[in-house]
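Continuing from yesterday's entry. The apo prediction looked reasonable, so today I'm repeating it with zinc ion included to see how the binding region is handled. Same sequence as before; SMILES copied from the compound registry.
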Amino acid sequence: MCPNVPSSQVDFTYVNSATGAKFVLDHFIVSHNVFNGVSRYVVLHDGDNLSDHHPVQLELCIDVEYSTCCKAQPSPRPAWHRAGELHLQRYREHLQNELLMRVEILTEALACRTFNCSDHLDDLKVYYAAFMKALASSANACIPAWKKKAMAGWSEHVADWKEKAIFWHSMWLSGGQVHGGWLHAIMLETRAEYKRVSRWVVRNQEKLVAGCMADTLCENRSRDLWSEIKQEKDSNCRQSNVINGAVGSHDSCQVFNETYKSLYQSVPSSESELNILYEELKAGIRDKCQSGAC
Ligand SMILES: [Zn+2]
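Holo prediction written out below.
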C-alpha cells in the first residue's frame, strides 16, 4: 500500500465532521514492480471539497512503452469487378507509362542466377518496390474504387422518409414558409419521422447487419453473405503497433521475418544430418520387422 512508500506525505484522508477525528482511510494499492516507481504520494486538503474524504494523488516515474493501437489506414482499394473494358485499357496504358518512367530494368541483377545472391539483393528490393508502386498507382488512377457500403437497413427503412421529408420541406419553402397551417404540419411531421427512423437504424446497426446475413443465408446468396462478413470484419480491423517488444510496422515485420526463418530452418536440411536420420529410421524399421512387430 502506498502510505508505506518513503515519499508518502499523507497525514489523513478522512475527517469526521462531528468529532474532528482524522484517519487514513483512502489508499492506492499497487503491485510490487510499480511500488519503487512511486515518486510522489500526497493528499489534497482542498477548501472546495464538500466530501469528508480527501482525494489522494499518486505520481509514478516508471519506464513505459506506448502501445498505440492504430486503425488500419483506409486506402482506396480498386474494385476490379467494376472495371469495364475502357478502364482496363486506360490501366494498361497508364501502367506502361509508369513502368517506362519509374522502373529501371536491372539487367545484371535479373540475369544473375546465384541462389540467395547478396550482391544483387538490395537492387532487387528496389526493383520490386518500384514495380509494385507502378501497379498500385495505375490501379488507383484507372480502376473504380470500392464504394463505401450504405448503412444496413438504410434503403429499406430510411430512404422513403428522407425523400418525403425533402419533398415536403421544398413544398413548404415554395409555399412561402408559412408557420402554422397544414403544409407546415406535414413538413414537421415528415421531418420528425425521418429523424426518428434514421436514429433507430443507427442504434440498431448490429441487429440489422445480422438480419442481412440471415437473409442472404436463407436465400443461398453466398457471395453476398461473404461480402457482409467481410464488411463486419473490416470494420473491426485494428493493428497492434507492438509485437514481442518491437514497435512500429517495420520492426514488427522483422519479428515475423526472424520467427519464420527459424521455423523453416528448424528441420535438418544438411546431407549428413539427413543421412543420420535415414539410418535411424532404417534401423528402427529393421528392428520392428525382425521382431515381428511390423
Ligand atoms: Zn547476383
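Comparison notes:
- DSSP finds ten helices and eight strands in the chain.
- Strands lie at 14-15, 22-23, 38-43, 56-60, 70-71, 238-239, 242-243, 246-247.
Will overlay with the apo model tomorrow.
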